[in-house]
Design goal:
The protein has about 300 residues and is α/β, with parallel strands linked by helices. It is built from 12 helices and 9 strands. Bound molecules: phosphoric acid mono(formamide)ester and norvaline (NVA).
């Protein structure tokens, strides 16, 4: 009998390694095929459990529709409805679910819980966002940029304005992996996790990506080909709302800030957006905004992720 292959998790975007580039190509192909009405049942007979500790519009829907497109079955589970909510351990939950399903998608408050589930599950665990990373989002974002830039990342620069949060962590690592330059502006006290920055710097040495960090949004955006922002208050940080709104006041992506980017610079936001806070209506609804493509590409990205991990 052939040896059983070890299961593969996606906790950090780095876990995709050399599979990231082919995965983006596969996602583009799945998108083109879906538009022609062609769906391939590559997940036929497979079940995917989805545990969401926090709300979700895009991630949940795109995984559910994606699994269905691929001929599989998904089960949405809120911890409230699981014994997990009554104190059953993550380890026991992981071992039980692994006897029923072929993969577990998990949106967690804590990255430690994400790692614990992955440690005990014998099936792939996919991080659907935690406090440290949001890898599936960045797959969709890179797909979106690659569509606009004819598959080329090198020679382009993306700017990030806002929080050094989960989305920025995965973006930083993802840019470093594919060789896309990234200039980030985050306020004092809201910079990235230093461990993520040092991993990104190592990856960037190989890919040639230039990564730069500052506290000045104008400096980050100057000459950029695309500008990306996210909420100032992530899920779970609601108690910090007023302190954060003060700290981020100068970090709004508006027309005045966009005037420093290259003419025609793309605008990205992972959504949900807080219009009038981190981004203004005219910018998010402007002609160079690609936010709806990002949202759509979550679907094609999730399908390519599932195929890659369940292959
Ligand atoms: N961007 C994103 O992950 O959105 P949801 O929280 O709606 O899933
Ligand atoms: N940084 C945000 C992303 C939401 C998709 C959060 O964690 O709430």
């Amino acid at each position: 009998m052939p040896a059983k292959r070890p299961k593969r998790d996606l906790l950090s975007i780095v876990d995709l390694g050399d599979d990231l580039a082919p995965l983006l190509k596969r996602a583009a192909r799945l998108k083109a095929e879906r538009r022609r009405g062609v769906l391939r049942p590559s997940l036929k007979g497979k079940n995917v459990a989805m545990i969401f500790e926090k709300p979700s519009t895009r991630t949940r829907t795109s995984f559910e529709v994606g699994v269905h497109d691929l001929g599989g079955h998904s089960l949405y589970m809120s911890p409230k409805d699981l014994q997990l909510g009554r104190g059953e351990t993550i380890a026991d939950t992981a071992r039980v679910l692994s006897r029923y399903v072929d993969a577990i998608v998990y949106r967690a408050f804590r990255s430690q819980d994400e790692a614990e589930l992955a440690k005990w599950a014998s099936v792939p665990v996919i991080n659907a966002l935690d406090d440290r990373e949001h890898p599936c989002q960045i797959v969709a974002d890179l797909l979106t940029l690659s569509e606009r830039w004819k598959g080329r990342f090198s020679g382009h620069r993306l700017a990030w304005v806002g929080d050094g949060n989960n989305v920025h962590h995965s973006l930083l690592l993802g840019c470093a992996m594919v060789g896309l330059d990234l200039s980030s502006a985050t306020p004092e006290g809201y910079h990235d996790d230093p461990g993520i920055v040092s991993t990104a710097r190592e990856l960037a040495k190989k890919s040639g990506a230039a990564l730069s960090f500052s506290t000045d949004p104008r400096e980050a955006v100057r000459g950029a080909d695309a500008v990306y922002t996210d909420v100032w208050v992530s899920m779970g940080e609601e108690a910090e709302q007023s302190a954060r709104e003060k700290a981020f006041a100068g970090y709004q992506v508006n027309a005045a800030l966009m005037a420093h980017a290259r003419p025609g610079a793309l605008v990205l936001h992972d959504l949900p957006a807080h219009r009038g806070l981190e981004i203004t209506d005219d910018v998010i609804d402007g002609p160079t905004s690609v936010v709806w493509d990002q949202a759509e590409n979550r679907l094609h990205g999730q399908k390519a992720i599932l195929e890659t991990l369940l292959r």
